[in-house]
Specification:
This protein is of the alpha/beta class. Helices cover about 25% and strands about 20% of the residues. It folds into 2 domains: about 290 residues, FAD/NAD(P)-binding domain, CATH 3.50.50.60; about 80 residues, no CATH class. The strands form 5 sheets. Strands 1, 2, 6, 7, 8, 9 and 17 form a 7-stranded mixed sheet that branches. Bound molecules: flavin-adenine dinucleotide.
Length: about 400
Amino acid sequence: MDIKELIRITEPSRLTPVTHSCRTLVCGGGIAGIAAAIAAAREGADVILLEREYGLGGMATLGLITIYLPLCDGEGRQISFGLAEELLRLSIKHGAEDSYPAAWLDGGTHEEKVKNRFLTRFNPHFFALAAEELLLSLGVRILYGTVACGVSKSSGGAISHVLIENKSGRSAIEVENVIDCTGDADVCTLAEAPTALYAAGNGLASWYYYLEENNPELKLKMFGLADLIPDREYDRTTHYDAGKVQTIAGARFSGVDGAELSEAVIAAHKSMFADILQSGVVPVRTSSIPLVRMSRRLSGAVTQDIDTDRKFLADSVGMTPDWRKRGPAFEISYRTLYTEKVPNLLAAGRCISVSDELWDVTRVIPPCAVTGEAAGTAAAMTNSFAALDITKLQTKLQSNGVKLHNG
Ligand SMILES: Cc1cc2nc3c(=O)[nH]c(=O)nc-3n(C[C@H](O)[C@H](O)[C@H](O)COP(=O)(O)OP(=O)(O)OC[C@H]3O[C@@H](n4cnc5c(N)ncnc54)[C@H](O)[C@@H]3O)c2cc1C
């Protein structure tokens, strides 16, 4: 038996100060958290966004996953709207790194839209800074360097406080509702909501930007793993090594074990360092958070499956294409965002309640923005998510430009 299983200590009891209070607490400042906080703040909610790092964007910016996968279905039809599109535009407000979607943003023909999917590549710094500026302009309070590490619940099972730790030590935030955008369903777990793990685990990856000798062009190496669209619109670009993604040998990791995550990051660093030295390039920036695809998710009121492709869902809160192929379009059920077990908690982004097969579709940037927007909008309307009148939420989302249904 592992020694960790045997030894326990009793921590001294303590009085924890309540340092903040808000209507909606968004935990995690990745794409889902940014979208959730924008949506809730625009609907008038008093929002705090807490983020364990000192920058916004999560995997997309700090992890250098700087490819905004398509908003369209590959057949010339836009599928994801609302904040999914607004954030794509924001990501390239100060210039696209590559793959500027001219056919979509500057008025192209249907044929051009089929040929060039509605995707882009962005500069992670511009995107993170522009997102921060936008959130602050909406009155969102951002708490960086802050980890959600516990919850306190009322007798009815709702979360009354979220415990946080940062440079000031441990304190509590009084909340009316919470949106878990941690990517790994951390708050759902702390609140004892039902969750599920991705049994197959994650492969190692560590992306980096680099310069070659006598070449001023900054390049991105997608080292380890990459979500490349099979029909490869990317290949016409020169800014990164599309089609040459080098895998890293090593055990798969769950993404939710602290020691194991460090081992995974160190193993990925080791391979990346060898690759840099062997290629003779100069690294300019490396991923600064672990690259995790699917780890732990909410087990919500419904677990939506891949067989919902092009199906009408009466409680749809937005849509996503399948980045992996042309054709599919999924309406996303509101019930993937909540559980009846914790009435004032929602999940958004890569930890919503979907089957393993659909998870690979909903974990990428556009659907994370879609579910973030839906969650933030709902959080401004109620503290009891299972009881929310879905038509009111849908009307609000539609008035903000979200398209809910196919056809
Ligand atoms: C190798 C790889 C390649 C990929 N390629 C692409 C691609 O080409 N295009 C694409 O669109 N998508 C791609 N993805 C997926 C995509 O980047 C992410 O899944 C998506 O950005 C997730 O957004 P999110 O907001 O749900 O989660 P995250 O980006 O994971 O954000 C979660 C945030 O919460 C913070 N956090 C976590 N726990 C806590 C806590 N307890 N307290 C406070 N803060 C916390 C984290 O620091 C992070 O900022 C790829 C992913 C991987 C791993």
